[in-house]
Write a structure and sequence with these properties.
2-enoyl-CoA Hydratase, Chain A, domain 1; 18 helices; 21 strands; Pdz3 Domain; 7-stranded antiparallel sheet; 494 residues; 31% helix; globular; 3 domains
Length: 494
Amino acid sequence: MGRFVRRANTAGLLAAGLLTIATGVALADDQAGAPAPIDDFDRAWQLVNEAHWDPAYLEQIGWDNIRQTYRVRAEAADSLNDVRVIITEMLGELKQSHFSVIPSEVSNREFDGPEAAWADFDAGEAEVSEAEFEAAPEGERSAGAATTGVQVRVINSALVIVSVDPGSPAATLGIEPGWVITRIGDTEVSRLINALASGMEPKEVSMYAWQVFDEDLRGREGSRVRLGMLDHDNNAVRRIVARADSGAEMFKFGNLPAMSTELDWWWLDTASLGMKSDKRIGVIRFNIWMIPIRPQFERAMWELRDADGIIIDVRGNLGGIGGMAPALTGFFVDDRASMGSTKMRGNEINITAQPIQPTSRGDRYTPYAGPVALLTDNVSASTSEIFAAGLQAIDRAAVFGDTTAGAALPALMSPLPSGDILLHAMADYIAADGERPEGGGVIPDLRVPLTRGDLSNGIDAPMRAASAWIAGGGQPFRRQHADEHSADDHANEN
């Protein structure tokens, strides 16, 4: 628990640590290294001071005084990692997203190429005794991108499994959506969530905790993790689950560490949702906004071009390259469309989406004109929010699910003297309707939260609501009342 509590004491660290947590680094861990370079601290402060889009805000929060306060601590620091922690806490004073230190050992990390998805793995151990469970060797925190195949969210202060990938180690061991994870290795889930709740807003707790737990569920291929869980009937269940390569493509961009990129598309089985509809609905889901996603998205749109409606699922998508939002918007507009603007220091740049016509393979493509639904949750962040806010503002898509993370600032990656990278926001994003996702997030047109009860019964409520909207003709919502809408309200209106 020690490595988390130190970060949990300051609510502002959520925004500052957004990307760093996702990459698998615990900044409060002790690391061996040379004497702390004060030059890293000075350069980080200077970069923010020179590039932040709002000097008046820096003056308002006392950025000069903040430097003096934290520099005293940086001068007395004993290690590079201690300086990283101090810089991170200083950045937390900004209380804005996309301010973070990425250690050089993370930014330079490479991963081996993927093998066939879930190929030749030992799934792990089911039905182990409590003694065997406690005696299992450590190794849960080994670095890597392999996964057990479970996706989780924090729902009502519990870590709930929302989906299990078919064929994954978790699926092989009988783990199901709707189960609650109470323990990962030696980490008691409730203790961490309670520690975070002592200094954060509920929305921040859900996002921060999800990032930490998602990190702990991943690791080196072949490593194992002990999971204590409650099944649908709240019976205690113990599993020792292997991590296996999902077959995702690894991609490295700039100074960021290598990341897995995954995109799936399929035709929705509306009957499985309890719907009596002959509408053909396509679904596209992807985990990150990185370059390999673009050709995959194009292929999906080509295959789904005759759909009566398309659902794009960006739940759990933390963002990526901001320029991809207008690029993918081009598949849905038949003329130039404003995606809003970015406000920088002394400059404002309009973001425009151009309609896609010929595909990269030379096929003639007509931009899709049918209803488009987006699925979001409180860990849909950054580029996912720009995409959602942009399409929502021009009435080209309806948003279902939960309010997004509120972390939508464009950022730069600048080297520090030690070789670490400073991620620092240099612009504000404003949608075409004047809304700012930063802080408040993108509010769904129809709020449909996930519940454990639905998940236990195999129900993806946001997916079902979006499908019902498409089947009903995809009529625009009264957006001025979007924050008051719920799924029950919508059902009554129809």
